[in-house]
Amino acid sequence: MREVYPLKEDLYERLMVLADSAKYDVSCSSSGVDRKSNKQGLGSAKSYGICHTWAADGRCISLMKVLLTNNCIYNCAYCVNRVTNDVERASLTPEETALLTMEFYRRNYIEGLFLSSAIEKNADDTMEKMYQVLLLLRKIHHFNGYIHIKVIPGAQDTLVQQCGMLADRMSVNMELPSRESLSLLAPQKDPEKILLPMKQIHHQIIDNKDARKYLRHAPSFVPAGQSTQVIIGATPDTDRRILSVSEQLYTRYQLKRVYYSAYVPVNEGPNLPSLWTKPPMLREHRLYQADWLLRYYGFTVSELFSKNTENMDTEMDPKLAWALAHLDSFPVEINTATYSTLIRVPGIGDISARRILKERRIRPLDFDGLKRTGCVLKKAKHFILAKGRYYGEKLEFDTIKNNLVERPLVQQISIWG
């Protein structure tokens, strides 16, 4: 028999308020977890992920993305839920949150839960309530679906550890990429308190993996890893600064993902962009492209920026920009180039590079043969040789840029002039 909790009549009204308050948090992703259902429990988590995004097969993945409360003691200048804002406030109890998750799952509305919260009293109180939600879902309702939980910086290590044994993914939002930015817009937040739980989660993931080598049935600690979110455009932090922070997080704490969120002006303030400022969506897109190069293509931040450059060229993707700045490394012969060289060629990605390596074992590839590998030949032809022949117009900066860069009719204007 299912547990029955007393629910207030305004439950769904409060849910709407808290779901709307959670929409600015973008750091949710596919789970990377494959946990099957069983006769004793309900639900499952698949490796293609549980989130409000698009799966690799094109499916739209859904989850209940909600705050436990939007009552906050902090007054972060950029946040819609800051204590001085006159917004509708609401809270859910752990029992209500667990029950809503189960009822929505049974109705096939969602496939999992993304749970965050404002800080109503203090970090420990909020983290304890979030732990109670996980405990109810996993131990009382036997819910096996995907759960992503936000860690509250400053909460006790024990609470973080307990949540990590029940959640699939955890994230600690940096929000702003530098101490100066935090001091300017969120002076109540301590940078060290943000980094400490990241470090703790990283070490416990490693320790848990080592323990599971000897105890195969031991419970997993955050099997889908950890992530974070950085707001861009609210402060003058440059692309180089932002990506340098991401590079350090990937290196030190092996984060699965850093999410970049274009700042949406919701508040007025002397240190904030104007309310009429458009979110820097193109800049966000370029940061994601550069981040991909850092994580999968072996690039470093120092390679993506020249000595005196602080921001990326929004006219072109960062891989093309790098290639144009290093024309002395091109063209490369596709029949002899290594994998690491091939994936640095604009228009050639991981899959097409592997296909090239496979195809050329059988026969040398010419330009027509390249079409079978999935390369974007419109780009790649300017940087490669096929059986010694160059198919581009001319290996020269302006020529290639004019051929590949489509300039928008209206140029994007920087919020900082």
The tally of helices reads 15
Kindly estimate the percentage of residues that lie in beta strands according to DSSP.
Answer: 5-15%
CATH class bucket of the largest domain: Alpha Beta
Structural domain tally = 2
- Major sheet summary line: 6 strands, parallel
Question: What structural category characterises the helix and strand content?
Answer: alpha/beta
Provide the residue-averaged pLDDT: 88
Q: Based on DSSP secondary structure assignment, what is the total number of beta strands? A: 11
Give the proportion of residues in helices. Answer: 25-40%
CATH architecture of the largest domain: Alpha-Beta Barrel
Low-confidence stretches: 46-51, 53-58, 409-417
Which outline best applies?
A: globular
- The CATH topology of the largest domain comes to TIM Barrel
